[in-house]
Amino acid sequence: MGKFESDFKLKTNPFRMTPATNPDEIIWAGFNQIKEKFEKRIERSVRIPNSTLVLNWGEYGSGKTHAARFFNKKAELQKISDKAGKCIPYSMIIPLPKGKEPVFSIYTTVIDKLDILEIRQKFQGIDINSYIENFGSNLHIQNVLKAIFNHDIDHLQLKKYLYGNISPAELKNFISIGILRQLKEDTDYTLVLSGLFSCLTFEKTTYSCVVIWIDEFEDIAVLSSSNIDKTNNFLREILDNTPNNLLVFLNLTQSALFSVEDLGQYVYESVRSRIKERISFDLPSRETFKNYLRELINHFREGTDANPYFPFDENVVDDIISEKGNISLRQFNESLSLLLELCDMDDKHPITLDVYKDYKSEVIWDKN
After folding, report:
1. What pTM did the predictor assign?
2. Among 131, 132, 126, which residue's Cα sits nearest to residue 144?
3. Complete domains list, the chain, with CATH
């Protein structure tokens, strides 16, 4: 056992400021009501063939991105799916594009994550072509979708085509399967995605639904009016063209640029009318903070201790909450992380009220 573990009875600093890259390190502590809302909403989409738009609303650092990462974990999605008795969802996180072509950027992100060989293997023996032939009336899009599931077509060449990187000479190789031109308009990209999502969730036998988290949606406020139009049109059309088995979460941060009153300015009525639920990440109460802290520390506990807040005395936790006032979860974590690191460097433990007072001006430095 290392010095940090023996001094603080923790496997590592629980209050990490950078996102975990290993899904196993992404955990959920406290905030059970919010967790249950996400579980129920995802389970509903797993069970029922409908498409839904959900708005996640809260201040910066309130946990929206963490929720996206946690519920994007295959292990968590598998638990929800097992409870529903259905297949796992096809899930991904997409930051809101800030460039000139937001729809193409979203489309490219989905194609980046698309493992064509794996999809073909999973759909082996399923007559997906008959389903595709009844998807819309655009024969070109139908042929592109069929190519995705066709084992006879080179998957790398197809990826080049989907990215729009294929040469005119290479495009001729696709003429025999009815693909005569490149994809080039937002309508093309939206139809390919909606068709792909519908195919992936065909009869809910391979994937029960598609779950998409669009993170940092508040950045729509800095887009040009043209790109705001494009983003809203995409959301409306992707939901309309994928009537079954699509769940879209919009993570939206309340800020100086974006308040509740501004919502109508950037999210059009055609999209707002499709929002089925709003999940609010409110600033936590004292007891909510403390419950979160107990569960988080317990997850990283090395050994046992009668004090559920160890290495912090409970009165230290109470004072930080009182001094900081109404703060986000991120700010709370930052204060405890800094205090823990300072005490570790100076070899002071446990972190009593007297120890904490030595560092209080540094820990509470950003108090308004």
Report:
1. 0.93
2. 132
3. 48-281 (3.40.50.300), 284-363 (no CATH)
